[in-house]
Prior knowledge:
Elements: E1 3-4, E2 10-11, H1 14-22, E3 27-34, E4 37-45, H2 55-74, H3 82-112
Antiparallel strand pairs: 1-4, 2-4, 3-4
Helix pairs in contact: 2-3
Amino acid sequence: MTYNLSPDKIIxxxxxxxxxxxxxxxxxxxxxxxxxxxxxxWAICHNNISKEKGLYARVLENLFNKQKKMRKCLNELxxxxxxxxxxxSKQKAVKLYINTFYGxxxxxxxYSINCS
Length: 116
């Protein structure tokens, strides 16, 4: 089973979770403690169905596929060539960009919690 932990598919309200269940979507409950208070959220289970993936999942998948194509092209180039250096720099930039996505959802989710 795959859970869509993309911030655009996280549900923070109990009422919204009930509505989604009524629409025959599978969800997964997430519970954790913050300052001795139990926080509940729900994630929509997308089962790797593309149309149900969240924005983060789709963007990351697209970027990963682009980087994969670039790495494949690198195998066909001479490592000493200018083209290799340019393409290698681009694929490293895409990799770095992909890696920046992993910290951002945590920041967004912490900001969403009613701590104030």
